[in-house]
Automatic annotation (TrEMBL):
The lineage of its organism: Bacteria, Bacillati, Actinomycetota, Actinomycetes, Pseudonocardiales. Keywords: Oxidoreductase. It comes from the Bacteria. Belongs to the short-chain dehydrogenases/reductases (SDR) family. This is Uncharacterized protein. Pfam families: adh_short_C2. The keyword Oxidoreductase applies.
Amino acid sequence: MRLVQQIFDATVTRFGAARWSVQQRGDVPTGAPLDTIAEEDVDQIMAVNVKGTWLCLGKEVHVMERQGLDAIVNVSSIGGLRGSPGMGAYQATKHAVIGLTRTAAHDFGPIGIR
């Protein structure tokens, strides 16, 4: 969380504002059936793909709500819309990113953040 805060603090300090943000990072594990994925691998994928997106959304909103109209783009993948063999953990995280994005639109649209 500190790293995310540092990134947004540095952005506002350098540019005076954060008018938009794009989350595109994703951790892709080697393919494995759901019953063989190590718990540690699932934790890592969730931390990067879901928690990372959630942390950025929280910080972005606090910066952007003070500035007026702004935009946030979260990049998922086709994996967020369907299933594929051996990609269960990854695709679960991409479904979660889509859910976070849709919820953010409802929560923050009324305050001018697209």
